[in-house]
């Protein structure tokens, strides 16, 4: 059945706001809400414990002044915005969370979690910063087990192997539906703009019924494929094809993605946290559940890992598969791991014969004009 794409885009655009009412309904029904900040948090464990995960990453500049009463001004805007939501009670997702889960990805986050722990029950997973050693793998598996035990105690439940296998299957099916949606960017021309793609990817985070989410994604993917097959795409075949990499985009989408496409390019793939990085690998359903979950999550190639050759490998594959003409890296202010990794990523991308630009920014709009000028020059060069 063909769907009204304008209605779909509007629905996903409003998903975060509409999700406020849904999460209240879930709480009224006795559901356990678990707030998360990072793709390293194993959501299969949360589902198996009868919980509902919801992302708490701040995307607004409005709550940053409140956060700067406690936090330094020269800190990552995502950290400040998230903490600002918490202390100002402006985020229903934070308010309704029974437990907040953090992870030691970066120094700024882990110190913020200490402050957050004064107002919310906050549990921090100790993430190893290497992926290949047996010590790191065993350590992370132990952390996953401890997280399971924390949820069992918190929610007075038992996380059985059967429940784990059910949640693994559910989350794998979600990843497959997301991967199929991402693959629309491989088409020439793509049937959807990068901004609309981001809107949908952001919106699915707030559809708490995973079966409903999977069905909606499959439906819109089928409709967009039909649009392409009928030569009804509105995007030019000659528009330069852009890969976005780097930090999370929630607070900078309008001044980066929107402006990038306004000056003539089209974003076809996202490598960062909200994109393909978390869905490339499934949890092995034939392996012992805890080990399989730990192995999958530890393999995510974030810049907090050292070394992080997995990111370079992923970029190589995506550039080839999506026929990328240029790579735009987004660095949030004071995100040291991504900022330092820029040198190697630029060299790697350039060695593949692809132009690269890195933009460092925050959640304010003060640099919007400057960014547009740089993006215009980059696209014109392509």
TrEMBL record:
Source domain of life: Bacteria
Gene3D superfamilies in the record, alphabetically? Answer: 1.20.1270.370, 3.40.50.11890, 3.40.50.11900
Question: What InterPro entries would the database entry show?
Answer: FldB/FldC_alpha/beta (IPR010327), YjiM-like (IPR047678)
NCBIfam families per the record? double_cubane (NF040772)
**Its family?**
Belongs to the FldB/FldC dehydratase alpha/beta subunit family.
**Entry protein name:** 2-hydroxyglutaryl-CoA dehydratase, D-component
């Amino acid at each position: 059945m063909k769907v009204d794409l304008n209605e779909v885009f509007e629905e996903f655009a409003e998903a975060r706001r509409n999700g406020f009412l849904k999460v209240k309904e879930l709480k009224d029904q006795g559901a356990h809400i678990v707030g998360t900040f990072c793709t390293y948090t194993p959501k299969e464990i949360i589902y198996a414990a009868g919980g509902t995960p919801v992302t708490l990453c701040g995307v607004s500049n409005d709550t940053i002044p409140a956060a700067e009463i406690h936090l330094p001004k020269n800190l990552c805007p995502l950290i400040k915005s998230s903490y600002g939501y918490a202390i100002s009670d402006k985020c229903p997702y934070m308010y309704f969370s029974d437990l907040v889960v953090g992870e030691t990805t970066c120094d700024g986050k882990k110190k913020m979690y200490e402050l957050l722990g004064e107002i919310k029950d906050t549990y921090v997973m100790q993430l190893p910063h290497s992926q290949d050693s047996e010590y790191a793998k065993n350590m992370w598996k132990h952390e996953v087990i401890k997280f399971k035990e924390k949820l069992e105690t918190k929610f007075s439940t038992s996380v059985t192997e059967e429940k784990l296998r059910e949640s693994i299957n559910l989350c794998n099916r979600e990843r497959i539906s997301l991967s199929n949606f991402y693959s629309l960017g491989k088409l020439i021309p793509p049937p959807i703009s990068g901004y609309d793609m981001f809107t949908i990817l952001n919106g699915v985070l707030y559809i708490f019924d995973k079966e409903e989410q999977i069905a909606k994604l499959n439906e819109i993917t089928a409709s967009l494929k039909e649009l392409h097959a009928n030569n009804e795409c509105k995007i030019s075949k000659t528009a330069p094809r852009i890969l976005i990499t780097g930090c999370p985009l929630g607070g900078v989408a309008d001044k980066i993605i929107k402006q990038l496409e306004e000056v003539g390019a089209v974003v076809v793939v996202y490598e960062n946290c909200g994109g393909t990085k978390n869905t490339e690998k499934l949890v092995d359903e034939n392996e012992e559940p805890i080990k399989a979950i730990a192995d999958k999550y530890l393999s995510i190639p974030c810049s907090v890992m050292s070394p992080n050759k997995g990111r370079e490998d992923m970029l190589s594959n995506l550039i080839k598969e999506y026929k990328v003409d240029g790579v735009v890296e987004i660095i949030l202010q004071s995100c040291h791991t991504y900022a330092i990794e820029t040198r190697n990523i630029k060299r790697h991308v350039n060695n593949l014969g692809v132009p690269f630009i890195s933009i460092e920014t925050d959640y304010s709009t003060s640099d919007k004009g400057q960014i547009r000028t740089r993006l215009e020059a980059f696209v014109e060069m392509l």
